[in-house]
Design brief:
This protein is of the alpha/beta class. Helices cover 38% and strands 20% of the residues. It contains 17 helices and 19 strands. The structure holds 5'-deoxyadenosine (5AD) and iron/sulfur cluster.
């Protein structure tokens, strides 16, 4: 590896956690002289940030690696080196197997270890031998908070929680991302402050189960005044890394802290003047009633977006039980009704799996019935795919692919209709839109509504990064059209 090795290309697969992680990898690498490129052909470092949640993920990565090898060989002929990094959940699940099957890969790094990338790249430069780093170092990757966080974005994800202890029988996340872990409040607040300073207006709090957030309170670090403490931390970033690590040690010894819930964290971030909107995703129904204040907050906290992504997966009690979801459809309805009571205009979203082992026509009809009753603003739906090592993959009664296809088509058609209806209902409304990027056509800018919809407006590119009142004049399947007031 030469000293001029600096352009980084990242391909991100899968969920929003991975989108966030890819951004953080770049943030962490930038101070070491690396820059981002969209062109894989000019990249000195190619990172595949991978996902294993559905369908033959590892195979997709290996076939992509086949294409990358050709590129690497061509660059070698020109005297240029290329470092190949496999990051994310496939890295975690496959480990050294990646090097065995693709010996030209240089670094395999898991989701909890990528903050070491600058050091690992340096090691590759010196030793020219592959490295596999898959440690679960809890929140160490969050100790590094580059000053550039969120720069150039009006909307940003902020990871507050990782991992999952729920063990749904179809899901690999508890194995690849590890146990539920919440970042301490002060560490998150500091990241939010940096983002606010860099022009971010909307923060989406991110995690596999943000509803299970239990954050170490800021006052356990000898100081009861959060603002005072945060400012002290900001002045002394390096010391703070030590403080956070100490908190982790205490955390393991002493479980009697008065942990902060998601709603308390939201209330706190809402105090940051520059942050105008706050959202959160993803939640699990079984945690929702433990933090009842979250529901009230949707009524009282203007900055909290009227949007809830609450995956239900299936509308059949039999399938929910077999999935180990630990709640019934009736309990799901109760939770949704409560949110609607306190925030009638709330936009609802969910994830669904069709063709789970043992799903009969009647079970699927229950899912359709649930969707009809709830009326979603948008949703994600997938065919069940057996993930090696998960309990559901060992159930005998697997469903035929053709039946899965048919069910998915029926469900997606209904969800599309509901999304269209939700969008059409917004015509004539006025709402605040945060502008994010240029539109496809000249003279257009694209922003986001409080309900997570894309909003296209005529306007100059200068308004990107601004929040403005918009009157909605038209609606399509995936976006609204508006006039800036
Ligand atoms: N098959 C299909 N969909 C799955 N999901 C998770 N695991 C699987 C699987 N094995 C879906 C769930 C989850 C979303 C992130 O991915 O709907 O909520
Ligand atoms: Fe997977 Fe279930 Fe955890 Fe979600 S709650 S990450 S679906 S195990």
């Amino acid at each position: 590896m030469t000293d001029s090795l600096k352009a980084v290309y990242i391909k991100t697969y899968g969920c929003q956690m991975n989108v966030y992680d890819s951004g953080r990898m770049l943030d962490i690498m930038r101070p070491h002289g690396f820059h981002h490129t969209d062109d894989i052909n000019t990249a000195d470092v190619i990172i595949l940030n991978t996902c294993t949640i559905r369908e033959k993920a590892a195979e997709k990565v290996y076939s992509e690696l086949g294409r990358i090898l050709i590129l690497k060989n061509e660059r070698t002929k020109l005297g240029k080196e290329t470092v190949i990094v496999i990051a994310g959940c496939v890295a975690q699940a496959e480990g050294k197997e990646v090097i065995r099957r693709a010996p030209f890969v240089d670094i395999v790094v898991g989701p909890q270890s990528y903050h070491n990338l600058p050091m690992l790249l340096e090691q590759i430069k010196r030793n020219k031998s592959w490295i596999v780093k898959l440690d679960f170092e809890e929140n160490n990757k969050f100790d590094l908070l580059p000053e550039e966080l969120g720069k150039g974005s009006s909307i940003s994800f902020l990871s507050i929680q990782e991992g999952c202890d729920k063990f749904c029988h179809f899901c690999v996340v508890p194995y690849t991302r590890g146990a539920e872990f919440s970042r301490p409040v002060s560490n998150i607040y500091r990241e939010a402050l940096i983002m606010a300073k860099n022009g971010v207006k909307e923060i989406i709090l991110l995690g596999q189960n943000v509803s299970a957030y239990r954050g170490l309170p800021p006052d356990i670090v000898e100081d009861h005044d959060i603002d005072h403490k945060i400012h002290k931390d900001l002045k002394n970033q390096e010391n703070n890394t030590i403080i956070i690590s100490d908190i982790q040690k205490n955390h393991k010894k002493n479980d009697n802290f008065n942990y902060w819930s998601l709603s308390k964290l939201i209330e706190n971030i809402a105090n940051i003047k520059e942050i105008k909107r706050i959202g959160y995703t993803t939640s699990h129904p079984i945690d929702m009633l433990n933090d009842i204040n979250l529901i009230f907050l949707h009524c009282t906290e203007k900055k909290l977006m009227p949007y809830l992504h609450l995956p239900v997966q299936s509308g059949s009690n039999k399938i929910l039980k077999s999935m180990n979801r630990k709640h019934t459809r009736e309990e799901y309805f109760q939770i949704i009704n409560l949110f609607r009571k306190y925030r009638p205009d709330i936009a609802l979203s969910s994830d669904f799996i069709v063709g789970y082992p043992g799903e009969t026509d009647d079970d699927f009809a229950d899912t359709i019935d649930l969707v009809k009753q709830i009326e979603y603003s948008q949703a994600f739906s997938f065919k069940y795919s057996a993930r090696p090592g998960t309990p559901a993959s060992e159930i005998n009664n697997q469903i035929d692919e053709k039946i899965k296809d048919q069910r998915l088509q029926i469900l997606q058609e209904l969800l599309r209709k509901q999304q269209m209806i939700f969008n059409l209902q917004k015509i004539g409304d006025e709402m605040e839109v945060i502008f994010e990027k240029p539109g496809k056509k000249n003279g257009q800018v694209i922003g986001k509504s409080p309900y997570m919809q894309s909003v296209v407006c005529d306007g100059s590119l200068d308004i990107i990064g601004e929040i403005m009142n918009v009157k909605i004049v038209d609606a399509k399947q995936n976006s609204l059209f508006g006039k800036i007031i």
